[in-house]
Design brief:
There is one protein chain. It contains 17 helices and no strands. Helix 2 (about 40-50) packs parallel to helix 5, helix 4 packs parallel to helix 11 and helix 9 runs antiparallel to helix 11. The mean pLDDT is about 95. The protein is an all-alpha fold and about 350 residues long.
């Protein structure tokens, strides 16, 4: 018996009947020989962790672009916080920690530079729109490993695709990551906003603070415990109505008063059109797009394939590389600033 088989047998004995067990994975897009040590979900976690896209997250914005200070979150630290919250919940509910971690580590691989500001900018110009969850799947299927992709399991791809908005993950592990993402970014963005001096705890909605707690640490702890209490022994991941309403109200407050507010107006004014302006330039100067992105579509019959190649290139940039490229193009971009 291999180590992998022993682990799969342990999952059968230990995990909840509602857990996604490695032995019964729906498999990969391309068949491959199984590892004798790691389960399929452990391999997916490792492939994501060692990918170039994952490393680039350290230089991508979470909420604040080019913050002055060493303790603000980046897209990478956000991803690690989501993973920690999600794994805590998964272990408590006896769900598959490895699958949960793989989804959490991969959920934002397709995020643009400049955070949601960059995503909205590309969404305005790319045919069919641009959404980071869909782009994350493109990264692991079409872009990584020189176009070969990571060949992840269907459960991990499903969790990455459906982690945002009104997505409906097919596994409980995916649902854990979906709610953990919101818990993480709402609370650590509050923390960073306080650090930046644009919020204080006492301006947060008092009814939310009363229910969830008056610090980020207390709120995260409360929400984790609430999910565990309300999800134990059932085929679902739930917050109770009061906690869910408070979390979403706090999230709405952050959108109204931080993400979409005048508080970030200087960043919005400075970086709000970096990607769309470069998008126009690279469409007209397609020969300047690196060949590694073009190779992904050599035999493509996809509509708007050149537009997608340019979007892939821009979305993969780090904040600092996007700024450097924009500044290097200089006067060439003037005609696209209209």
């Amino acid at each position: 018996m291999t180590i992998r088989e022993r682990t799969e047998n342990m999952e059968e004995q230990i995990l909840s009947p509602y857990a996604s067990k490695s032995k019964y994975s729906r498999g990969r897009g391309r068949e491959e020989e199984k590892c004798d040590i790691r389960t399929c979900y452990q391999r997916d976690r490792d492939r994501i962790l060692h990918s170039k896209a994952f490393r680039r997250l350290m230089h991508k914005t979470q909420a604040f672009i080019s913050p002055e200070g060493d303790h603000y979150r980046t897209r990478l630290t956000h991803t690690l916080e989501v993973s920690q919250i999600a794994r805590t919940i998964a272990v408590a509910l006896r769900l598959n920690e490895d699958l949960t971690e793989a989804i959490a580590l991969g959920h934002d691989l397709g995020h643009t530079p400049f955070g949601h500001l960059g995503e909205a900018d590309l969404n305005n110009v790319v045919p069919g729109g641009f959404h980071h969850n869909i782009q994350s799947v493109r990264v692991v299927e079409r872009i990584e490993k020189n176009g070969e992709g990571l060949n992840l399991t269907k459960e991990v791809l499903d969790g990455i695709l459906n982690h945002r908005g009104k997505g409906s993950p097919s596994t409980l592990e995916g649902k854990i990551v979906q709610i953990s993402d919101k818990i993480a970014y709402v609370n650590h963005d509050i923390d960073d906003s306080i650090r930046a001096g644009i919020l204080t705890e006492d301006v947060l909605p008092k009814d939310c603070v009363k229910i969830l707690g008056n610090t980020s640490r207390k709120r995260i702890d409360f929400l984790i415990r609430n999910i565990i209490k309300n999800s134990e022994g059932i085929n679902d991941i739930r917050l109770d109505d009061e906690a869910r309403e408070a979390l979403y109200k706090l999230r709405g407050y952050m959108f109204d008063n931080v993400y979409n507010s005048g508080m970030l107006s200087e960043e919005r004014k400075k970086y709000g059109r970096f990607l769309s302006v470069m998008y126009g330039y690279y469409l007209d100067n397609f020969n300047e797009v690196p060949e590694e992105f073009k190779r992904n579509y050599e035999n493509s019959t996809e509509e708007y394939y050149s537009e997608r190649i340019v979007a892939d290139y821009l979305a993969g940039m780090t904040d600092r590389f996007a700024k450097r490229t924009y500044n290097a193009l200089g006067d060439k971009l003037k005609k696209y600033l209209i």
